[in-house]
Amino acid sequence: MKEVPDTVVCPGCDAVYSRTPLQPRDVARCPRCGTELDRHPGSQQQRILPLTVASLIMFAIANLFPIVEIELHGLHSRTTLVGAVIALAGEGMSLVAMLVLATTLLFPLLQLLILLWLLVPWRWQRRAAGFAWLVRSMQTLRPWGMVEVFLLGVLVAIVKLSSLATVLPGAALWAFVALTVLLTVVMSFDPRGFWEMLESDGDRA
After folding, report:
1. How confident is the model at residue 149, as a pLDDT?
2. At a CB cut-off of 8 Å and minimum separation 6, what does 148 contact?
């Protein structure tokens, strides 16, 4: 299908509308079904790169340091996310281990790396290699990043274990808290905004 300039297609009901300029904080919705059609990006283009870098730093801390330290009858135990995945696999729960590995480590990391790959060249008004494929891949990966679900599970486990043993939060736990907040902000950036930035750069050229 040939694309028509200055039009937007509703993802909910396939209605076609003329694209209109939006003011800061404006959100355009389909009058037929209420689906969001477009929103003004505001200053996201300027802040999304430093937030992505900060997320990667928190991600590294969250995966390199212990999540919690448990003390019971003089015995100490601590583990990282990767250690927890290995422990699950060793207990015969390979499927659960793969899900934890994919949703809390691989998919979030891929999303952040894709964002970094796309945004760094943009600072110098250049288009990253594999631009179209990477934007589509990021849209596909977005629903599968579940760091916040993992964090919630860890917090519930800490509350339950605290009545049986001494549980000390590790550096990784605080990093996961910060990472969850950062990812919420970073992933609020609609990947469709890359196409809009590309169009705006083309208009300026």
Report:
1. 81
2. 180, 183, 184
H or E, element range at 27: strand 27-29
Which residues partner with 8 through β-bridges? 17
**Diameter over CA atoms, the chain:** 70
CB of 167 closer than 8 Å to CB of 203? no
Contact at 8 Å (CB) between 51 and 27? no
Report, as an integer, the average pLDDT of 187-197.
66
How long, in residues, is the chain? 205
3-class DSSP state of 14: coil
Q: How far apart are CA 151 and CA 145, in angstroms?
A: 12
pLDDT in tens, 135-147: 888 878 877 777 8
> Residue 32 corresponds to which tokens in the numbers above?
């037929």
Give 48's strand partners: none
From the CB of residue 131, how many other CB atoms can be counted at a distance below 10 Å?
A: 17
The Cα–Cα gap between 19 and 17 comes to 6
Whole-prediction pTM value? 0.71
pLDDT of residue 74: 66
pLDDT band at 121 (very low <50, low <70, confident <90, very high): confident
3-state secondary structure of 112: helix
Q: What's residue 61's pLDDT?
A: 92
Q: How far is CA 102 from CA 29, 81, 95, in A?
A: 34, 12, 11
Residue 124, token pair as written in the block: 């110098």
- 3-class secondary-structure state, position 7: strand
